[in-house]
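INFO batch 0412 | record 1 of 1 | parsing
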Amino acid sequence: MKKLLAILIAAGVIAWPAATWFYGQRAQASVEQFSGAITQAVPYLSVASSEYNKGFLNSTQTIRLRPNLPPIGDKAWPDIVIENKIDHGPFPGFKGVGAARITHNIVWPAEVKAELAKLWGQQDPLTMVTAMSLGGGGATTFSSPAATGQFDKTKVAFQGLTGVMNFTPGFSNIDYNVSAPGATLEDAENKIVIGKIASSGVQAKLANTERLYTGTQNATFESLEMTTKGQPAATIKQVKYVAETSAPEPNLLSAKGAFTGAALKFGTTDLGAIDYQFSMSKLHAPSIEAITKAMQAQLNKVAATDKPGVAAAATDTNAALMNAIKQHLPELSKHVPKLNIEKMRVGTDKDYAQLDGAMFLKPVTAEEAANPATILPKVDASINIELSETLVTMLAGQASQRMMGDTQAMMASLPPEQRAQMELQAKEQAKLMVDQQLAGLVQEGYIVRGVGKVSSQIALKDGKLTVNGKQVGQGLLPTK
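INFO prediction complete | emitting tokens
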């Protein structure tokens, strides 16, 4: 028995370093793949540099991410530096069994760190850890602790954030959940209360692609309430977003989604509810991926330079995008991709604005793709717009009040009866102005006036723009 035990211990002593070396190799590959997944998920974030220092039990990686976004004033966005500490398997950090345990640390610039300390003090404002399983998948958990503090004259109470993302080998399947209970911001005059925010999703990588996924995404925003000097300034409640992407045919993507909000108010103006529903179909997946990869390659090229000139970088990136579109548009358009706006409505039962529409792209040849002027006639689109007359009158009345300016102050000093009479006259004048303008638009054929509403049908077909069936201008087809 003692001899057997000695043999097992010796075998373990020999096997453990070999296993640690093996999982050290796998950990490096996993971390590099994880870094690539970041830029795939956030296309306007590129890897400017990456350094990997390998050890026996653990390694470190320093990755510098460069945001490719419009500048703030005349300054480019600062780089994001992340230091990853990788503990190798099969017992990473001696905190369990797995291929690796990666602790992600953001290296905050000194001025940013000083500001964050006002809220979190010595606590780390964001903790992220990835546990890689022996099979190649894993899970990333992240959290931000609740904190209170003050920035200048603004008091902040943040209730924290938690989230987890699970993934299979090669990120072929992903699911995630993120939740933030809310926050409050308050100064001497204003107060903003943000309700719970939550997001979740289940995604599966589309076959034969590197960065296209099908599945569902959901997000909810409980509420936002803003007051100024104790008076309501803005209210948003029960905002929801849901989207689903599928591939009903090989290499062709479809998507549908909705964005809704139960209540939207600004001051005393009640804008009612928001309801936006859309769908897309016949999107050629290989073409879409080729365009996004060409864009990412250009962004990486720009990011690799030492703080490129913002204008030059934007010009190069736009040129790369146009070249990619020209190259892949013929194949993309061959399948006649379509976009539908099933519904877009804002308003109450009485005061509302709504529209619906559809657009599709007819096949474009390589020669036509090289000349943007010839592409427009390949677009067929139609939009139906409808507004309640009460909304048009209300908007005109608000515009009239803003134009009156000093008159409002003068009216405030008048006796109540005289002020009420002048306000009534102003409303009647606004309604008369709206009636005259609507009558003119009806006569020109731009709108159709119904009972309590106005509407218009706009269409673009074969390069010709029509409004309510009446052609506008001389058409948009190129001259031969």
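INFO post-check: Residues 384-472 form one domain.
INFO record closed
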